[in-house]
Write a structure and sequence with these properties.
Elements: H1 18-24, H2 36-50, H3 66-80, H4 84-87, H5 89-94, H6 98-104, E1 105-106, E2 114-115, E3 117-125, E4 131-140, H7 157-164
Antiparallel strand pairs: 1-2, 3-4
Helix pairs in contact: 2-3
Keywords: Actin-binding, ATP-binding, Motor protein, Myosin, Nucleotide-binding
GO biological process, one term: actin filament organization
GO molecular function, one term: actin filament binding
Length: 187
């Protein structure tokens, strides 16, 4: 398959704007510079041409920009499929699991708000290749983080949020205390 190596610049660059999407739309792979939009266009064309499911695998280390790359691919599909203004699918898919994100994000040595989930996003298209829906499945990657953290890392954010709320009446029955009181938790 096609491999694209992308680097997270940790700042917004003008290479993901609407005009860039249109520049890559309809182009053949290799006719333009390597880009997430080139990969998305190739998958989109093959889906339309072969009428078969396509996959884009976004992989990398913590803080590498995997979620952002997935957002750009979804934005590309919504724009070239003519459904960007109708559905705002990118925002809907990514906002579909805020509770899961609150539970599954943690501080790592490379990223203060790193998702500890693997995500599998399925995007459904109609016969005109417009996005009609999406489904996101999440897989918790680090169950061990609950009882152990590496040096300079933290448990899941929700743990600290619950401990900070321990004095609220609705949390009294949970018998929570300061997070530093829990074994294996470093503050």
């Amino acid at each position: 398959g096609i491999v694209l190596v992308a680097i997270n610049p940790y700042e917004q660059l003008p290479i993901y704007e609407q005009d860039v999407i249109y520049a890559y739309s309809g182009q053949n792979m290799g006719d333009m510079d390597p880009h997430i939009f080139a990969v998305a266009e190739e998958a989109y064309k093959q889906m339309a041409r072969d009428e078969k499911n396509q996959s884009i695998i976004v992989s990398g280390e913590s803080g590498a920009g995997k979620t952002v790359s997935a957002k750009y691919a979804m934005r590309f599909f919504a724009t070239v499929g003519g459904s960007a203004s109708e559905t705002n699918i990118e925002a809907k898919v990514l906002a579909s699991s805020p509770i899961m994100e609150a539970i599954g994000n943690a501080k790592t040595t490379r990223n203060d708000n790193s998702s500890r989930f693997g995500k599998y996003i399925q995007i459904g298209f109609d016969k005109r290749y417009h996005i009609i829906g999406a489904n996101m499945r999440t897989y918790l990657l680090e169950k061990s983080r609950v009882v152990f953290q590496a040096e300079d890392e933290r448990n899941y954010h929700i743990f600290y949020q619950l401990c900070a709320s321990a004095s609220l009446p609705e949390f009294k029955e949970l018998a929570l205390s300061k997070y530093s009181c829990f074994p294996g938790v470093c503050g």
